[in-house]
Design goal:
- The complex is a heterodimer of chains A (about 110) and B (about 120).
- Helices cover about 0% and strands about 55% of the residues of chain A.
- Chain A is globular.
- By secondary structure, chain A is mainly β.
- Chain A is built from no helices and 12 strands.
- The N and C termini of chain B lie far apart (about 35 Å).
- In chain B, the strands form 2 sheets. In chain B, strands 2, 4, 5, 6, 9, 10 and 11 form a 7-stranded mixed β-sheet that branches. Chain B has a 4-stranded antiparallel β-sheet with strand order 1-3-8-7, with no helix packed on it.
- Chain B is mainly β and about 120 residues long.
- The chains are: A mainly beta (about 110), B mainly beta (about 120).
- At the A-B interface, β6 and β11 of A face β5 and β10 of B.
Chain lengths: ~110, ~120
Amino acid sequence: AQSVAQPEDQVNVAEGNPLTVKCTYSVSGNPYLFWYVQYPNRGLQFLLKYITGDNLVKGSYGFEAEFNKSQTSFHLKKPSALVSDSALYFCAVRSGFKTIFGAGTRLFVKA
Amino acid sequence: DAGVIQSPRHEVTEMGQEVTLRCKPISGHNSLFWYRQTMMRGLELLIYFNNNVPIDDSGMPEDRFSAKMPNASFSTLKIQPSEPRDSAVYFCASSRSLEGNQPQHFGDGTRLSIL
């Protein structure tokens, strides 16, 4: 069965510093991987998705994700964090017709 | 473009009452999903539809829960009778299709409190 794991409940970073939110996956076959962000009192918003062949995926709001097949990871990155990036981030993987979401990682960006 | 629209945004009711949550998916999207989010269990998929037909309802917790999609622009999730443990945020999401690379677009949810 497909699954994703987000090993960190929370990530703290100073504004202007690079950020990384980690995600590892377990899939059979070609993976369909996604990142979503959730702001308070809002639904999840799609950030980016992995397309076979592109190891570095660029998405919304300056975010990008690095796909590493040997490490089965799909970490979310941003070169320079903003206070407004503070939110809950979900990694997700397709499993059949369903999308399996990770438990989420809360990102705090301190000014 | 209008996103996924859910109503009501907040619902507070007493246990035993019937609760109906509503969702309007993005026009042109053929797939619709209902999720429940709680601190304890995270995001749980309840049921999903494709072309208005329920495909998998294995995530529906009990027979008290039911969902319908009478047409391409409307879906309901009903709880009857409601219980305090049903308190959660319920999200509706839609996507263009069930194809693997299609992202889901979420509404802003209904925060349900059962007293």
